[in-house]
Structure formats: C-alpha cells, structure tokens
Design goal:
Shape of chain A: globular
Structural class of chain A: mainly beta
Structural class of chain B: mainly beta
Largest sheet of chain A: 7 strands, mixed
Order of helices and strands of chain A: EEEEEEEEEEE
CATH class of chain B: Mainly Beta
Number of strands of chain A: 11
Largest interface: A-B, 26 and 22 residues
CATH topology of chain B: Immunoglobulin-like
Helix content of chain A: under 10%
CATH topology of chain A: Immunoglobulin-like
CATH superfamily of chain A: Immunoglobulins
Largest sheet of chain B: 6 strands, mixed
Order of helices and strands of chain B: EEEEEEEEEEEE
Radius of gyration of chain B: 14 Å
Number of domains of chain A: 1
CATH class of chain A: Mainly Beta
Shape of chain B: globular
Radius of gyration of chain A: 14 Å
Oligomer: heterodimer
Amino acid sequence: DAGITQSPRYKITETGRQVTLMCHQTWSHSYMFWYRQDLGHGLRLIYYSAAADITDKGEVPDGYVVSRSKTENFPLTLESATRSQTSVYFCASSGGPTDPFSDSEAFFGQGTRLTVV
Amino acid sequence: AQSVSQHNHHVILSEAASLELGCNYSYGGTVNLFWYVQYPGQHLQLLLKYFSGDPLVKGIKGFEAEFIKSKFSFNLRKPSVQWSDTAEYFCAVKKASGGSYIPTFGRGTSLIVHP
C-alpha cells in the first residue's frame, strides 16, 4: 500500500537501552522528517533528511541518531534511551525541489508511542 | 528561521458555535501555509493548504482559512462546529523558495466541542 508507515506503534524500553524506530514511505519523496510530540510543546523537529545520505539536525537532536541509506527508509535510533525521551514520535515525508510535486504538504505516519522506564 | 504562533492553546465550544483559530508566522518571504488536524490517538492529517492565488482557502469538513499577507496571518474558521471536530489543530509554514522544505509547526490548539 502506498503511504508512510512507522513501526513499532508502541514500544516500552528501559533506560540505557538502544531503540530504533522505523519509517518507510512509498512515494519516493525527497524529504523525510522525525518529530516528537509532547504536551505543551507541540511538534518539535528532531532530524530531517533532504535526500538519501543527506541528513541534518533539527530543533532537538541530542540523544538521537538517524541514517538514510535508501530514499524510502529513515530510521531513528535512540542510542541510550532516557526517560525524557518518552514521547510520541512521528515520521513525515514531503516533496523536494527535484520531485514532481515539490510544493506539497508533509504526510505523516501513524506515530510510535515510546515509553522509557 | 521562521516561527509560527498559535494564540489559542485550548478552546472549548458547544456544538453549532463558530470557530476561529489564530495563526501568525514570522517569515517575511513567500510562504506555503497549512492547517493540520490530529484526532485523538491519530496522526496529523491535512485540513487545507495555501500556496498562491485566492487567499481564502476551503478545506475538508467545512473548514476554511484566510491568508492575510499584511498581517502574516492564516486563521482557521468554521461557521458551525460539530462534536466530531474535537481534535488538536496545528498551523504550519514552509518557505516557498530558498531551498528550505522544512515545515515549521505551531504548538497546536486543543479544541473540545461539547454536544
């Protein structure tokens, strides 16, 4: 099915463990984003990617690592999870300057609810 | 960098009341503007968007928004809300040129509609 999918939908992990959240999109969008959503803060950008092998920090990158070896995948890794990283994580994608529909909105995945205990 | 301000953090209305949610942005250049809705437990979905042309934009479910360039505003309106409109609403802005394709979101407005 076309779209953007995240996995897992729910995850409970312990402090100090490494966790990877997966994101896959089928549109071949150039841009992909990771946001975290917390009460009172709205959506905050963690990392983004303009194309395969091109990533950059957003507003709150500390404690996170991303990679993008293929256009369609953009995993987010918490290297050593902390309780402050308990949040809902959303992946999104949108067209870029080389895409047919560069002036497009961002499309969001269903989110991953991560709890760090 | 651009920023987005949503003035109303929490709004409580009764069914059939009119709704207006404020959104202001700080970037002075040409922008693309969006309103997203997030129903409880769900992901963000696009309500409407403005790229160019008529500043009054109509979206899904009876929502509309007006772009006022001189005021850097993109307020969301609905003449008569329903209980099913209970959700979180996010305004977002993206530069229309200059190579930045990163949308910046406001903090969101929580809307509760009482039946």
